[in-house]
Amino acid sequence: MLERAFQSLDDGYLDDKIFLQDLARSHTAQFTKDYLEKINLELMEWIPKGADLSPIERIWAKLKGKLEELDYDNLTKEELYKEIQTYFYEDQGIKSQIKKLYESLPEKIKLIIENKGNQINI
């Protein structure tokens, strides 16, 4: 799944980019570290409670809202998987939302620095 996620990005999109992820186990697993090193992706050092800057948290919230519209408790495992795949790989809006969230990071980082590392309202 990790490889497919990166392959779904436009060719060259990750050039000269720094990748941001939180410290979830799946992100710090040796497999993940090895893969990101293999594709030569630079990682930003991350603090344990740095959700202020985590764009994926916003994407997960949007996905959850979309699935709640579908009454996901009554979906089969296969139907749920298909809905998630459609959301991430076929919905063109999601790519622009992710791009917008990442492009907003420099301003958010500036605000956190000005706030001496404390939480900001975003």
TL;DR of this structure?
The protein is 57% helix and 3% strand. It has helices at 2-7, 25-28, 30-38, 55-69, 77-90, 92-103, 105-114, and strands at 18-19, 42-43.
Describe the fold and architecture.
- This protein is mostly helical.
- The chain folds into two domains: 1-46, no CATH class; 48-122, no CATH class.
- The chain has seven helices and two strands, in the order αβααβαααα.
- A two-stranded parallel ribbon has the order 1-2.
- It is globular, with a radius of gyration of 16 Å.
- The two termini are 30 Å apart.
How many DSSP-defined strands?
Answer: 2
**Morphology:** globular
Kindly estimate the percentage of residues that lie in beta strands according to DSSP. Answer: under 5%
Whole-number average pLDDT? Answer: 78
Which regions have little confidence, pLDDT < 50, spanning 5+ residues? Answer: none
- Fraction of residues in helices? 55-70%
Instruction: Please state how the strands of the largest beta sheet are arranged side by side.
Output: 1-2
Helix count, per DSSP? 7
User: Domains counted in the coordinates: how many?
Assistant: 2
Separation, N- and C-terminal Cα atoms: 30 Å
- The radius of gyration is 16 Å
State the secondary-structure class.
Answer: mainly alpha
**Biggest sheet overview:** 2 strands, parallel
Order of helices and strands: HEHHEHHHH
